[in-house]
Every structure is written in C-alpha cells, then in structure tokens.
User: Fold this.
Amino acid sequence: MNMKFIYKCLAYFLVLLTNCYVMAQTELIDPTIEKKVDALLEKMTLEEKIGQMNQYNGSWDVTGPMPEDDYNKERYTQLKNGQVGSMLNVTSVKSVKEAQKLAVDNSRLGIPLVFGYDVIHGYKTMFPIPLGESASWDLSAIESSARVSAIEAAAAGVNWTFAPMVDISRDARWGRVMEGAGEDPYLASLIAAARVKGFQGTDLSADNTIAACAKHFAAYGFAESGKDYNTADLSELTLQNTILPPFKACVDAGVATFMNAFNEIHHIPATASIHLQRNILKGKWDYKGFVVSDWGSIGEMMAHGYAKDLKHAGKLAAIAGSDMDMESRAYVYHLKELVENGDVKEAVIDDAVRRILRVKYLLGLFDDPYKYCDETREKETIYTKEHLAIARDVAKKSIVLLKNENNLLPLKKDQKGIAVIGPLGNDKDTPIGNWRAHGETNSAVSLLEGLQNVLGKDVPFAKGCKIGSDDNKRAFLYELAIEKEDKSGFEEAIELAKKSEIVVIALGEECWQSGEGRSQADIELAGLQQALLEAVYEVNQNMVLVLMNGRPLAIPWAAENVPAIVEAWHLGSEAGNAIADVLFGDYNPTGKLPVSFPRSVGQMPLYYNYKNTGRPTKSPDNMVFWSHYTDESNAPLFPFGFGLSYANFKYSDLNVSSEKVSLSDRIEVSVTVKNSGSVEGVETVQLYIRDLVGSITRPVKQLKAFKKVMLKPGESKKVKFTLTEKDLAFYNLNNEWAAEPGQFKVFVGGNSRDVLETEFEVIED
Ligand code: BGC
Assistant:
C-alpha cells in the first residue's frame, strides 16, 4: 500500500468518524412535512391510500414490456395505478429509475416508491456479519460499516435497508444469531443505535443516507428450541427487560421504520399484536415511523390458525398497526372492502399512510424521486479501495482471540514452514457470509491469500475435507448433506502437517450454514472437520485453529487441546487480510465475544445474565439436587465478553465512591488496569452489576458499562465509570422502569466471568 492511499483512507475514515460524533438522531416529525402529508392525504382516494400500504418484491422484470402472465401483469398494472407504495429487491440505478418512472409518470398523484433491500452487512463491499462486527464492541467501527453500506446502497438506487436486526438471542441453534448483536440487551442497544445512525446519517434527505428498519418486532430470536419461525413463549417482563431495549434504542436513535416478526408471541402472531405495535411502539414510545410486515407474515396468520382467510388476516394486521404489507397482497385485495364494510376504520388507513408518506418526504423523494439514481455515482462509489480499507479495519477489530497457549501467536513473518489446512482455508466465498446483498460470489480475500499477501510467497495448502455437499452453494436449497465417509483428502493434509513447522487450520461453518431458515440441532464442527482436526493434531500440535462461523460453535475438544484459537466469523470482503493482520501481530486483537460459547448443544439456551434459581450451587451435602446437568458443566466454554490480547491485562483496586448511596446519587466506580505484557494493547473493561434482592428476581450479572483503554507495556491506568439510578432500573411488576433500594454487587473485569467484585447499598432518597 502506498502512503498516498493510506492518507486518503485515513482522511475518508476521519470524515466518517466526524460524522459519528456530530451525528444527531433523525427527527421524524417536521412541521413543514406534516402539512404536506396532510395536504396529500386529502387528495387521495381510498384505493390510492391502500396502494401506499402495499409492497411488492421486484425480482422480476418490472420495467420491460407489459408482462404476459397474469401474476406479473397485475403487479405492473397496479404499479401504474398508484396501487404500490414500495418495492423490495429492485436494485441498480437502471432498474430503480425505470420502476420509479412507471409509478411516478403514470399514477394519478405521482407518489414516488420507496425501495427496500436487505443491506445487512454491506452492499457490495462486504463487512463482517453483524454478530462478528458486534464482537468489536467498537461503536464507531460499527457505525462506519453501516455508513459505508448506506453510501453504496444509495448509489445503487436503494433508499431503505431492512436492518438493523436487533433480536436478542440466547440460542446458537437459531440460524439468525449471525444477524444480530448477541445475547446482551445493553450491548445490543448501543450497537443498534450505532447502526441506525450509520445508515441514516445526520440527514435522511441527503442522497447518500437511507432509511433503517428495526426488526423483527418482537421476540423472533426467542424461537422455541432455536428453530426458525417457531413460537416464542415468554413473560411480559422478559419481553420488556431483555428483548425490547434494543428496539427502544432504535426509536431513540430516530429509526425511520420497523418490521414485525414471523413468530407468535403471547399466543398471537406478532404481525397482529396490538400490544406490541399499538400499545408499546406507537403508544408508549410515541413512534412516528411506519411498520412493514415481514415477508408474507400477514398471509401466514392463516397457517398460524389466527386468521380464517386472507381478508381476515388483512383486517387483523391493519388494526394491529402493520402499516405496510410485504408480499401478502392482503391489503391490496381486501382492505378497501374492509373499510367500506366498516370492519376497519378509515382512520387506521390514514394513520398508516401518513407514516409511510412521512418517511418518503423525509427521504426527499417528493423533491426528486430519482435522487438515488445517478449512474456515475453508482460506478464510482461502490466497492472502492477506501471502502475495502474500512472493511478490513472493521474485520480485524471483530476477530476474537480465544486461546493462545505459550504465546504461539503472533506468528513471526520470517517463520518457516507455515501451512494452511482445512476446507475454509482457501474459501473465497464463505467469508462473504449469508445476507450478502450484492456481495459477489468468491470475492473475499481467503485466509490463504491473506497469509500469502503478508509473506510474499506461496503457502502450501491442503483442504482435507469438505464441510457439506457442493449443493450447499445453492443457498436456497441448503441442507447439510455430509459426505461422512469421504476421507480421501486426509492423507494429503496429514502429510503436509507432518512436514510443516506450524499449521493454520481453518474450520467452522460454510457461508450458507447460518442465516434465515438455517437452524441446526447440532452446533459442533460439521462433517469430517472434527476428525480432520484430530488427525492433523496427532502429527503436528503446533497448531492455530481459525474458526469461521455465523453462530457460536461447541468446540470442547479444540478448546482443550489446540494451543491457539482465533474466532474469525464470516468477516467479509477483506477477511483473509484481516486475519493475517491478527495472526502476524500487525493488529493486536481487541475483540470480545458478544455471545457465550457453549460446551455442548444441550446447554442451549445459554447466557451469562441468567437467574440464580433457588438451588444455584452444588454444596458438599447436596450433590444431586441443584440446578445443573449431571453430564455437563453449567459454565460456557468461553464466556460472554471474553477475548484475549497479545498484551496481558491485570485488574486491581476496584472501588466504589461510597458504600452507601441514595437512589439519586451518582455512583463512581474505579479500577486499575495494568498491561503486564510486552506489547501495547487495548482492553475492553467491562462493568456488571447484580441487584441482590428485588421485587422480581434479578439476573446474576448485567452489563452496564464498558470502556476501551489502550495500555503500553508496563503501563497502568485508572478506569472510571459512573452509575446512575437509570443503570440500576428494571421493568417491574407495576409496568414501569424503576430502581429499588437495596444491596448491589458491582463486578469489573475483561469478561463476564473473570471479575473483581465489591458491593454498595442504595437507600431511599
Ligand atoms: C426476513 C426479513 C427480510 C425479508 C425481506 C424475510 O424473510 O425475515 O428479515 O428483511 O425477508 O427480504
């Protein structure tokens, strides 16, 4: 890399970061816009209003000549008649322009369409999957990744992303764990807000910002047994304390839209939940954006056994506050009749349409429906060197060092005899991950290439085995068809390992193994990978395991035996370079797990902020009757918040400003962190609390703050935190957020397990 390019990247990055710091939340209410919305609503017929509530998929030729088949002919006609408010999956300036023109030029009122797309971790420049990015605990990095994604998407005509997904999940079997920020409501809330700010920028009407969408409202990540789309059955208090905080953080950050969820909750499909959409979101939170259904979720209420037909489903969804119908066609077919019969009040329609038009005005689409349609910008802005440099930066910050016995890492650049082994070693597609938007197949820098880029020479490689069948590449037909007996690649891998000094073995999950519809009953290394790992280890124990995966994996054997383990998720376009940055010590790892890693699938659901129960620990006289498994530890393999560095951090002197404070007092907590290692490093210092006795039982630990601190070898720093009443509050049985007087523990450390602890008492004011 030449210096000029490095300076250019730094300058670009600084602009992005400056944006982050001055960034105000998007205000959804602008009096001038409200007047315009009212005036337009006045002019609209009932049919035109309902049209705004209708969203179609566009992965068909909307713009060519009138389609022949009835299905597409109907959509085409509706587009021209103003009966479509939005399209999804129409991308590229050319397609967006043509579809927009069809609506704007032909419909009576010329209302522009809003174009939605799943820009989940990049448009074409791919960033780490959201779970991986969350391991950075670096809000500026996360925000800059969303910012770049928005810049690219907007340049391709897209003005609305269906992201961030802010579903808390405690179950690694659920395939969509990869799309969220993990198991903790506090960390996930900060990340949710950072992503919204990144997508929406400071000004939604700018041509390089796009509307964000908080999804899936709500409890989609609490699917029973981790099976996608399954029932979520949980208490109102868990909903309020654990699941809703990241959604509320999105509202506070000014998110323009929400998406509801496929699952049922409190025995009702979320799409028809008045409690969620009317009472909480639009009621208590006074939210002014609009809610889109999930794909076909209105129609799916028939299968749920909640609606008798599509018309009934449309009625239930509209009344409950699902403002836009994604691909069920319930509104466009039935809503007019429902209003005319008095089953749905026209005020319900007006409210939904007002919200949709508001977002279209905020985006500036009425001023210029083609503002995202500049072909030159599209050519020049997408997949640039600057964006790739940011992707590499975010990727290296997302890597978590899980184990490093005898300081095997970092590798020396003059290290002889490095070999790469394993099915993901030269895989250029898996790091692109699932939900890849326009990320191109096989476009990532592979691990092998990353190492070769550093060493400037070929590195020997042996694949050893496949993960699944080659059919896995057909994303939508994904089944983990393991060819159990095909060990034909083992010999080559073993021979290579024998003659090498050090083996970097790349295992984990193939890119389509996690994501929507990819729940798994088994979360160990799939196929022959475990056998390969053990066979290679037998001949060469000088081994670094690089994991690439979308969900926490159960790898107890590796954790016990392999000396160095690096968690590298699916890191995006620059994956191999970022991993090489860490392996050779050009970047000292800083990542921390945003989810607990299990020992076995039987521990699911697994999370650090669990309840103590009445029988928490084994005591000598009670060997059986306590809350545990008889064949497995309760503890995770790697706890939430865990991640090593090439530096070494020691914690001491944990202090609270006063052992007795009143509710309105600020509580100052300080700790000394020392780098006792021999290289500079950054530690993420984490603060947890425990409310010992509550009006409802409280978790054994809750993350309440964290700070990153950079320390030179031998250096110590005092790290200070301030806790306020808000940090001690929880949602209680009186349906309010409040802190209660009593005894609290405070814990500080580099992860949720290894902490110092002290106590303080809170008394009434
Ligand atoms: C997913 C959503 C996504 C939508 C549109 C659904 O299947 O659940 O998260 O935004 O499809 O692609």
Notes: The chain is about 30% helix and 15% strand. The first helix runs from residue 3 to 22.
